[in-house]
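[PROTEIN RECORD]
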Amino acid sequence: MKQYDENDKVSVIIPIYKNNDTIKMAAMSAAAQTGVFTELILVDNGRTLDKTVLESLIREYDVKIVDIEKNIGPSDGRNEGVKAATGRYVAFLDADDWWEKDKLLKELNLIKRVRGDKGAPKIVFTARQLYTHDGKDTGRMVHCDRIVTYKTLLKSNQINCSSVLLLRDLMLKYPMVRDDLHEDYICWLSILRDGGYAAGLDEPLLCYRMRRDSKSGTKFKSAKMTYGVYKYMGIPLIGRLIYMCSYAFSGFRKYFG
């Protein structure tokens, strides 16, 4: 596989809020990426990171810290990380998830290799392996499509935030908004609505921890937030209802299919 230099540097943005128990694994997986020039940016949202853990991360992984005194939420936290980034590309990693060591390399290869009718993909992302909240492998993998357009993304948000890679300039143009909804879903839809497509790599390069205390921890709450996303994006009522049916079917297939 091709090795990439600083011209294709990836800024890995890890927002932190009360993640002292999992942040080391996330940071280690980002620092261990092969064949890619990276910088690690930790957004300490609300200064909840333990001082000893913080000093250890700085010493071991040469991380850049974006220190935010008050909790400004995941959207603005990621946006601040993007502003601080110096890489051509950005990748997001939640502090309770982790990557396989060749995740970024395979994504860069994909974004350089794939060319559709509309050029290179705006977003690349991967499938994910599901783990319990305490890090045990469930044996279940969430697959993804090879090509995702705005219309197909409306049917189901298969682009997990911790799996994406995209240009920093694109994230500056489409910052994340609305923490009360699925802020990442709004971002991907906004990007693809204006043209282009996303390319999926159907390999479980993201190890995704299912936490009960996540923002959308219950299925009902997540569905309500998804409906809010459709409304925010200006989808008419009948369209919202149709897409919610598709969302429900995709969710069932994802976890029980």
